[in-house]
Amino acid sequence: MDLAPTDRYTELTFWQSDENVNNALNNCYNGIYNSGLVFYNEGLSDNAVAKPSSGNGTSTIASGNFTPTLDRFRSDWAFYYGGIKSCNIFLENVDKNTTLPEATKERMKAEVRFIRAWHHFNLMKWYGDVPLLDHDITPDEAKTIARTPKAEVEKFISDELDAVAAILPANTQYDDADRGRITKGAALALKARMLLYDGDKMQDVVNICEQLINNQAENGTYGLAANYSDLFSNMDVNKTSNESIFALQYVPTLRTWGDYFDFAPISAGARTTGLSPTQELVNSYIMLNGKRIDEAGSGYDENDPYSGRDPRLTATIVYDQYEWKNPDGSTQIIYINEAKRPTGKDSSNVYSNAGQGTQTGYYWRKYWDPNHTPPGLSSGLNIHLIRYAEVLLMYAEAKNALGQMTGDVWNQTIRPLRERAGFTDEGALDYPGSGADMTAIIRNERRSEFAMEGIRIDDIRRWKTAETVLNEWAHGAKYGDPTVDNGYIRAQLRVFDPSKHYLWPIPPAEISLDPNLSQNPNY
User: Fold this and answer.
1) Is 216 left (phi over 0), alpha (psi -120 to 50) or beta?
2) How far from 123 is each of 24, 200, 280, 504, CA to CA, in Å?
3) Per residue of the chain (523 residues), what is the pLDDT tens digit?
């Protein structure tokens, strides 16, 4: 009865094949891939507005008009737990293979343990207490398992990341053919992010970031790409820069993502605009002299609002009369404000409160792939999940929280980020001194640096500022009713109830399958 067929793989023989093991590992990696969870998470924050038809419930969540039965909650739950199941199956079976070198299997297991930790981290971030699955559970267990306290889940993730960091190679130890594999640096950076989000372990965050900044011979060689825009649009830089610590890996024409079909200006080949940047995001970019636009002496001119601003604004957002560079090297002017569009010029990008165009009067430029595959703007660019820039800003935030922000820390962190962005004025580059509101400066720097990378919603939730910035209108450019909000478009009314919205509801369909799953408060 235990004889295995010889004409096909079975559970008795599957893991004996090296190729099958590699395919199973690739399947675990595949469980991370969801570009929509990166981009459309911006629409959950004050950075962007999603159309109701886009982003699997993003608009409904942002407006506060959801119920626990919203499909997004169950689909995300299933996405992460599906990934965890693949990881647990791999970990419990890979040692059945007897032909791969033991060191190779240990590295593979470490990669998979990182992926399992990544999934648990995201579940914990959205739902709080969640079932901790450190083995492949049976169908009967799935009907009875309870939620594990968040502190225990966090400890499990922390211990796992410590363990795999001791096994995984540094980025410099992988061959080019293995570029994109999970590294020791990725394990350290994810642990730092998790502890930063926890908020009570800032010294641990400092210690980890210092390992990545100061001990690169052991933990991996990382640095900032020379050009901010190139990191997101230049294929060579995007794929080879040592700024990328952990990324979704894509291959032009073979493995691509197509979200940009609904992000770019219509005249650049987009189908519609599913996700539009907000005026609030535009306003957050400082002036070249380092001042906020509402600060005395900033030089900001509301009639010429995009001049003299942080260069990351132009690298990220398309505004009225933006000079758009096409793949063939030609340029076109993007006219969004109908009142300023010259007669006879292209009108496809013009703002209106209906139709296919932008809801806010802005489009995206960041992650535009000039080598996209038509039709559909399919991109082979990698999507960065953790960058070295984040390590620097985690370090600055943690040092500041500990009361240890100094000019030296500033010069290690924010100054090089601004220099890379293109600032030259010492007012923006010099340490502003102990009298400045460093918390606000660091938080805004994160917003400018990581816009459209999906982590703004994490930041405003962990800072507990979501109840403020998500309880008001999200605005667009000044093309609206001049008697309302000074003419800025009212794009979407946001509602955020701090008594419950800092956690997502446990999907009722999951509770019906497993009565031991409790619901989050006030749902």
Assistant:
1) alpha
2) 23, 20, 28, 10
3) 455 555 555 566 899 999 999 999 999 999 999 999 999 999 999 999 999 999 999 999 999 999 999 999 999 999 999 999 999 999 999 999 999 999 999 999 999 999 999 999 999 999 999 999 999 999 999 999 999 999 999 999 999 999 999 999 999 999 999 999 999 999 999 999 999 999 999 999 999 999 999 999 999 999 999 999 999 999 999 999 999 999 999 999 999 999 999 999 999 999 999 999 999 999 999 999 999 999 999 999 999 999 999 999 999 999 999 999 999 999 999 999 999 999 999 999 999 888 888 999 999 999 999 999 888 999 999 999 999 999 999 999 999 999 999 999 999 999 999 999 999 999 999 999 988 999 999 999 999 999 999 999 999 999 999 999 999 999 999 998 999 999 999 999 999 999 999 999 999 999 999 999 999 999 9
Integer Cα distance of 115 and 248 in angstroms: 12
Place of tokens 């984040």: 390
- How far is the CA of 475 from the CAs of 40, 312, 452, 492, in angstroms? 17, 20, 17, 7
Tell me the C-alpha distance between 144 and 184, whole Å. Answer: 36
State which amino acid sits at residue 218.
E
Distance of CA 153 to the CA centre of its chain: 21
Can you tell me the distance from the alpha carbon of 370 to that of 314, in angstroms, rounded to the nearest whole number? 16
The 8 Å CB, 24+ separation contacts for 471-476 are 471/495, 471/496, 474/46, 474/49, 474/62, 474/278, 474/279, 474/280, 474/360, 475/278, 475/279, 475/280, 475/360, 476/49, 476/276, 476/278, 476/279, 476/351, 476/358, 476/359, 476/360, 476/361, 476/362
Residue with tokens 């997004």: 72
DSSP 348-373: TT---SSSSS-SSS-EE-TT--TTPB
User: What's at 278, amino acid-wise?
Assistant: T
119: enclosing H helix or E strand = helix 102-127
Placement of tokens 């399919």 in the chain: 378
Q: Which phi and psi (to 5°) does residue 493 adopt?
A: -85, 120
Q: Which long-range contacts (CB under 8 A, 24 or more apart) does 198-202 make?
A: 198/154, 199/462, 202/398, 202/401, 202/402
Strand partners, 354: none
Q: Report residue 408 as tokens.
A: 């030296």
- SS3 of 290-319: the string is CCCCCCCCCCCCCCCCCCCECHHHHHHEEC
Closest CA to 473 of 455, 499, 495: 495
For residue 443, the SS3 value is helix
